[in-house]
Amino acid sequence: MRPAVAADEAPFYAEEFLNEESPGRMCHVASLCELSDGRLASVWYSGSAECAPDVTIEFASRAAGDGAAWSAPRTIVTRESASRESGRFVKAVGNPVVFADDRDRLWLLHSAILLGGHGGSSLDVATSDDGGATWGRRRRLTLSPFLNVSELARGRPVPLEGGGFAIPVYHELLGKFPEMLWLSAADSPSGLAWRKTRLAGGRSYLQPVVVPADAKNAVAFLRDRSRRRAVTMLRARDGRLHLVYSWQMKRIRHVTFNEAWLRAREAAR
User: Fold this and answer.
1) Is residue 11 part of a domain?
2) Segment holding 122, helix H or strand E
3) Number of folded domains in the chain?
4) What is the pLDDT of residues 155-211, one digit of tens each?
5) What CATH number did the domain enclosing 203 receive?
6) Residue 268 resides in a domain
7) Which helix (H) or strand (E) holds 260?
8) Phi/psi class of residue 116: alpha, beta or left (left: φ > 0; alpha: ψ in -120 to 50)?
């Protein structure tokens, strides 16, 4: 549901960084979600280079309200922890996505690279019932019959009526293929139910972003393999818009604004 926005709301804009710059380490692929009380949670990966063994997944959170500060980032996934919990060798981790369900349980979906680069990755999922303070054991999703590799996530999940999520993902083996992962909790040994379907778009599109149009329809936007940087599409319950993105590949920047600020900028042109 689109939050109500007051027509006479004053323009608002703010920006801040989630982390300090660390020499020799890059930061990339930030993801953001909101809990029911207005808290924000964000994840991203940091390391010497993409797909490097020293890449870690970082987590930070922020209380609701203007002036609230982001918590100090902390590492929640490493190559070693992913290997230990999944019981298989993991070369590197990357591309994290965080989202919250209607019980305020946080979900973390991330790639676990088994060999080579991004094309050799599978997807792992873990959950937190305490706002990200602790995380349960991660589970591997089997999505591909061919070695279960070359699956990655990037876009923000869309909650489904009745529970579960539609998560835009993509496949990179022998081409670029946008897909949809349907994920929910279930009474099963893994505690999860999932399946995937392929979106239209041919062999050269990836990193789909899905925007609901109404209760039964949605629109997908696809990246065309260009090198343009991507940002992450969150509207909070109070109507404000939040973006997190890689700033010079060194820090994660958080920008907050409202529609009144957008209208004021448009009128000033």
Assistant:
1) no
2) strand 121-128
3) 1
4) 999 999 989 999 999 988 878 889 999 999 988 877 899 999 988 766 788 888 999
5) 2.120.10.10
6) no
7) helix 259-268
8) left
